[in-house]
Amino acid sequence: MPEVPKAGEEVRIAGCQMSRADDGPQAPSTSEDRYRLLVEGTGDYALFLLDAAGRVETWNAGAERISGYPAAEIVGRHVACLFSPEDVADGLPGRRLESAVADGRVEFEGWQFRKDGSRYWAHAIVTVLIDGAGRPSGFAVICRDLSGGMQSEEVLRSVLDNVVDGIITIDEMGIVQSFNPAAEKIFGYWAAEVLGRNVSMLMPEPHRSEHDGYIENFRRTGRARIIGIGREVTGRRNDGSTFPMELAVGEFRLNGRRFFTGIVRDITERKRLEHEVRRRVSELAESDRRKDEFLAMLAHELRNPLAAISSAMQLTGRFADEEESEWSMDVINRQVRHLSRLIDDLLDVSRITRGKIELRKEVVDVAPIVAGAVEATRPLLDERQHQVTVAADPGQMWLEADPTRLEQILSNLLNNAAKYTDNGGRIWVTASLEGPDVVLRVRDTGMGIPPEKLPQMFELFAQGDRTLARSEGGLGIGLTLVRALTELHGGSVTAASDGPGKGTEFAIRLPAADRPGGHSERVRPSRARRAPSRVLIVDDNVDLARSLARLLTLLGHEVRMAYDGEAGLEEARSFRPDVVLLDIGLPRMDGYQVARLLREEDCGRDARIIAITGYGHDEDRRRSREAGIDYHLVKPIDYRSLMPLLESAA
């Protein structure tokens, strides 16, 4: 028998190294008789497991020695590779496994074949493993080479000492007779601490107290509850901790006595991974559900303004009344702005999730930002007849912030307050200094938020009440943008509500900045209106190109059109435009290529090139600059932004 290693010595188990700490007196050696009992009782030179289909799952050193197959060559192959071609053709391997399934186990002797083609007379015991649902899940095989007589004790000891699974043998009273090194590692006991003691010491309560009753019932009735069944149970380590393990128990007799061998595998890591997989599946299911709801809301939000635009257009087409036409145009403009906001919000979310948002910070007075946000929301506030109270003193509070993004934060909060407050409600917008921070608050008398929903309000696509949310509109991304933009400024946002029907308050906390030393208004030089320009429109959207051409013609500009990149170049060579309104996604030649070629020719070297495109990411703007494009406008364009660029380009 091998001696128990001393402190600091290394022990090699199944190809892994471990070392024992000096945790007390050295345990005594395992007796030769106990080891011989395990050897003679199990007849175990080769120990391996098969899956339910008969493919090899584990392969110990004894199996490798007997068969000549390394584990790397046989794991995953069918056990039929150990039988003769005649036996395989006759279906013998399958019948052996079927017998094991039918009777719980099968024991047989016969010729087996090694890797090199030589044969040996084998004695094998195949025990079926049953899962918790009562279905066969695999087989445990114990095989011995009988052709050469008894093998040396040293070889068999090496087999048992190097298997990765714990192997424990008990007698019919439950007393431990053998405890291999893998079992020592799994349970944290030296073999000498376990041998001669009841195996129930390896079980937590209540199984520990019940175990002797199981043994007694089996001895009295002969009814096996776990023999030949693979199952998951709970083990108890030396330190008192418990862990999940797989247990397969086999029975054998020796000299008229009954013994049981248990093969144990610690499955703690597998259970952890299973739990992680279940958690991730649950998260993905929730994410998928929220995505589906978002897509439904997106379709709803797009259809509403499109329906309004369609109705207004039909009204304009049927009635020439100036008042009706003016009303229709107002509806169309308002709904186009709404669609633009939806798209901008979606793009902002995309940029934020990819870390592409860049803030243009400057020291700003808080009061004008607050006023700008209120004015931007004024149409909705007036439509709902809300009373708005603003408290933000000019020149008293300063922030280092991107003024556009800061106004966007407040506008989103005000839009929420206006939508989720009944008509005629009250909304308060305040700014105050609290220690080193400026705190912006938006409070309303609206529908409120249930306490359990508050933590979720800033999550992507989250909304408080789905039914109301759908009727009020919104994609559920506004508060996500509020939180993300606030955190980009180094601040934080919180939501508070006393519950449904009791209103909501959102608080934005941002680090205050020092008042600028010399504050002066920047005066932009005025531009005199220039003469009409020659404008070339290059866009494959014919309706857009023609409507834009009609508008510019009415404003006095000379306009020509082309509907692809190559036609645009040809038109520029003959027309020599002052301004080129250039789409990027063009057929035959994209807008970037067109711009580069224009800059190389006299016809476009000095022209003002303005991209009018649906591509609005920072990367798209960078590519425009590199191609020689002067301005990059995103569809749908605000003509108030376009007109000054035309007027100064004659």
From TrEMBL:
Domain Response regulatory: 534-650
Post-translational modification 4-aspartylphosphate, affected residues: 583
Any single biological process term in GO: regulation of DNA-templated transcription
SMART domains for this protein: HATPase_c, HisKA, PAC, PAS, REC
Catalytic activity of the protein: ATP + protein L-histidine = ADP + protein N-phospho-L-histidine
GO cellular component terms, semicolon-separated: plasma membrane
Positions with biased composition (Basic and acidic residues): 1-12
Domain Histidine kinase, residue spans: 297-514
SUPFAM superfamilies, per the entry: ATPase domain of HSP90 chaperone/DNA topoisomerase II/histidine kinase, CheY-like, Homodimeric domain of signal transducing histidine kinase, PYP-like sensor domain (PAS domain)
Organism classification: Bacteria, Pseudomonadati, Planctomycetota, Planctomycetia, Isosphaerales
Protein source organism: Aquisphaera giovannonii
Record-annotated PAC domain positions: 106-158, 229-279
Function: Putative oxygen sensor; modulates the activity of FixJ, a transcriptional activator of nitrogen fixation fixK gene. FixL probably acts as a kinase that phosphorylates FixJ.
PAS domain span: 31-104, 152-205
Record-level Gene Ontology MF annotations: ATP binding; histidine phosphotransfer kinase activity; phosphorelay sensor kinase activity
Name of the protein described by the UniProt record: Sensor protein FixL
EC number of the protein: 2.7.13.3
Region Disordered, residue ranges: 1-32
